[in-house]
Amino acid sequence: MTDPALLEKQIARNLRSLYFTRAFVQFVWAGLILLFVPLRPDLAIFLLVFYPLFDAACSLYDMNRNSQAANGAKPTQYINAAIGGVTAFALTILPGESPLPAIFVFGAWALAAGALQIAVGIARRKYLGGQWAMVLSGLQSALAGTVLIIHSFSNKAQVKDLGVYAIGGAVYFMIAGLLLLRRRRKANIHAVVK
């Protein structure tokens, strides 16, 4: 049998690493979108396909590495990974005359992924505590997705708007990683004091 405290530390370490990796990749992705897409629109489709695939891969990695912390979130993570894969496929087959259909699809994915992230954050809260940054990140994703969908119908959306979306998500992942780091340090201090 595994020691629950040791298991919790391992899960927190896995999540911290995942959150920092996601934040880094999202910052880089946002930079590429903001800097290069206006100059190289052909790069946009690659970046648009990469983002939901990366999110799907992170969900699968998280689910497999942290199955003890799933606490009812496992089906949600499977659904998120499937939606990410379907979204990436849809983005590759869209006609390229206008970016608006791609922004609509990306927005629909962001809305769905955000709702699922809220569910995972709430389910994990009982096991790991905190998780408010993950819930807020999911809320931000769902709201941003809704705005992207609405703007895609009114011709106001631009591919560079997705960079701003990614920065917001990266900030929340960074905060979530820092909260887990802070929690670990507090636990270590308490262990030394005892």
Mean pLDDT metric: 86
Extract low-pLDDT stretches: none
Quick one: overall form? Answer: elongated
Summarize the biggest pleated sheet: none
Q: What is the H-and-E element order?
A: HHHHHH
State the secondary-structure class.
mainly alpha
Strand content: under 5%
> Distance between the terminal alpha carbons, to the nearest Å?
25 Å
Task: Report helical residue fraction.
Answer: over 70%
Total strand count, please?
Answer: 0
What is the CA-based Rg, rounded?
A: 18 Å
> Count of helical segments?
6
Task: List the SSEs and their pairings.
Elements: H1 4-36, H2 41-65, H3 74-93, H4 100-128, H5 132-153, H6 161-193
Helix pairs in contact: 1-2, 1-6, 2-3, 3-4, 4-5, 5-6
How would you portray this structure in words?
This protein is mostly helical. It is 84% helix and 0% strand. It contains six helices and no strands. The protein has helices at 4-36, 41-65, 74-93, 100-128, 132-153, 161-193. Helix 1 (4-36) packs antiparallel against helix 6 (161-193), helix 3 (74-93) runs antiparallel to helix 4 and helix 5 packs antiparallel against helix 6. The longest helix is centred in the N-terminal third of the chain and has 33 residues, at 4-36. The chain is elongated. It starts with a helix and ends with a helix.
